[in-house]
Amino acid sequence: MAHSDSPASDEGDLSLDDRKIAILIAEGTEAQALIHLVRHIHEAGGHAAIIASEQGRIRLSDHSAIMPEAELAHSSSQNFDAVAVLLSERGAIRHRQDMAMLTWLRESFADRKPIGYSEPLRLVLGMAGIVPVEGVVTISELPQALSLRYAVLAY
């Protein structure tokens, strides 16, 4: 399959070594899931970049707050090898018509980036015209999905 212009696009490489993974979060994102995912990416040699649709500190499910590295509107999906989206159910409902998020997800999909999602994100994916198919996987399947680039599918 053709490669996208992602930072690390060695087809067949299952490692996260030198991979850049964008993690989209919003108010209410499950704190433990975020901590676990970031730790997994770092331990595997990758880089996790926390991206949010809002400016400033984002309050997580445990009431702690995190300052994202970038705001969604000022960050291109082309800078990443994959996207993980960790939204709570409330966050998914709130962002289901967020044009910046929908556009960002569509661009990631069109660039054949693996997209890992938390269960509540199905609503947002549907609004973006993306259905769970090859390359659109649950968060736990994301590391394996990095080994391939996916064909662009019709919306």
Strand percentage lies at 15-25%
Reported by name, the CATH topology is: Rossmann fold
Overall helicity: 25-40%
N-end to C-end Cα span: 20 Å
What is the tally of helical segments?
Answer: 5
Protein name: catalase
GO molecular function: catalase activity; heme binding; metal ion binding
EC number: 1.11.1.6
Keywords: Heme, Hydrogen peroxide, Iron, Metal-binding, Oxidoreductase, Peroxidase
Question: Could you name the key traits of this structure?
Answer:
5 helices; two-stranded antiparallel sheet; Rossmann fold; 155 residues; disordered N terminus; alpha/beta; disordered C terminus; 19% strand; single chain; 6-stranded parallel sheet
Note down, in words, how this protein is organized.
- The chain is an alpha/beta fold and 155 residues long.
- It has one domain: Class I glutamine amidotransferase (GATase) domain (Rossmann fold, 3-Layer(aba) Sandwich).
- It has five helices and eight strands; from the N terminus they run E-H-E-E-E-E-E-H-H-E-H-E-H.
- The chain has a six-stranded parallel β-sheet. A two-stranded antiparallel ribbon has the order 3-4.
- It is globular, with a radius of gyration of 14 Å.
Explain the layout of strands and helices.
Layout: E1 20-25, H1 31-43, E2 47-52, E3 58-59, E4 65-66, E5 70-71, E6 82-86, H2 89-95, H3 99-110, E7 115-117, H4 122-127, E8 136-138, H5 142-145
Parallel strand pairs: 1-2, 1-6, 2-5, 6-7, 7-8
Antiparallel strand pairs: 3-4
